[in-house]
């Protein structure tokens, strides 16, 4: 039985949930109350020594990652895509498909190197600092502007790629495409939707990704307010 130890309000957790639904894998939720630092408990640390969420348990096998690079969910999602290759959406190349393997890693590296470093830092400044009362509790707007400028320089390359093909690595969806969803969805409430809209091919692609049933299921019962904070719907 697959068990996901995480929290539905966590971006990283929802990334894994999205892949679980894409692969049509039945799983059991084990909710971790990270607000009360349950992920720092001795019981949790015994399973995930770095004390981060989420981690996945599959018939006794435990897989996790570490932040900030790479975020913990990438290892989990690749494991799920490979082990459960015979069901759901095809997200992992067949044995011996070296070109497919290269494209898989290419798509993942695009998100990891050209999207996450900017959007995760914007999220940290605009959302996390206030929630955790870090420093003044307010965003360093100079840094936010720097990260936005860096992001826009990368979105130009995305526009070039997505102007000629449906997904990042061709006409077939990949893990790299799916990996963009959590932060893209969260930070667009902070005004970045207008930034995304400046790049029509990128905007059409991310909006199409957000309409996937797997992502809707991953966000069932979750809402994001105008400050980028996720909360459970009543």
From TrEMBL:
It catalyses: RX + glutathione = an S-substituted glutathione + a halide anion + H(+). Gene3D superfamilies: 1.20.1050.10, Glutaredoxin. It comes from the Eukaryota. Keywords: Transferase. Residues 97-234 form the GST C-terminal domain. One of its GO terms (molecular function) is glutathione binding. Transmembrane segments: none annotated. InterPro entries: Glutathione-S-Trfase_C-like, Glutathione-S-Trfase_C_sf, Glutathione_S-Trfase, Glutathione_S-Trfase_N, GST_C, Thioredoxin-like_sf. GO terms for biological process: glutathione metabolic process. GO terms for cellular component: cytoplasm. Residues 1-88 form the GST N-terminal domain. Its EC number is 2.5.1.18. This is glutathione transferase. It comes from Talaromyces islandicus (Penicillium islandicum). The lineage of its organism: Eukaryota, Fungi, Dikarya, Ascomycota, Pezizomycotina.
């Amino acid at each position: 039985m697959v068990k996901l130890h995480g929290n539905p309000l966590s971006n990283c957790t929802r990334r894994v949930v999205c892949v679980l639904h894409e692969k049509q894998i039945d799983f059991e939720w084990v909710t971790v109350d990270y607000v009360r630092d349950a992920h720092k408990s001795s019981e949790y640390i015994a399973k995930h020594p770095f004390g981060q969420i989420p981690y996945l348990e599959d018939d006794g096998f435990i897989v996790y990652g570490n932040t900030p690079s790479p975020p913990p969910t990438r290892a989990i999602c690749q494991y799920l895509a490979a082990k459960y290759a015979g069901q759901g959406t095809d997200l992992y190349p067949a044995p011996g498909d070296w070109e497919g393997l290269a494209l898989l890693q290419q798509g993942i590296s695009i998100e990891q190197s050209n999207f996450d470093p900017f959007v995760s830092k914007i999220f940290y400044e605009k959302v996390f600092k206030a929630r955790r009362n870090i420093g003044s509790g307010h965003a360093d707007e100079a840094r936010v502007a720097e990260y936005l400028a860096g992001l826009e320089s990368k979105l130009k390359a995305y526009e070039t790629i997505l102007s000629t093909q449906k997904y990042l690595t061709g006409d077939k969806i990949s893990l790299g495409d799916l990996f963009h969803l959590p932060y893209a969805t969260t930070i667009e409430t902070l005004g970045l939707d207008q930034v995304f809209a400046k790049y029509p091919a990128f905007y059409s692609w991310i909006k199409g990704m957000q309409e996937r049933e797997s992502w809707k299921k991953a966000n069932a019962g979750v809402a994001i307010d105008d400050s980028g904070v996720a909360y459970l719907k009543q």
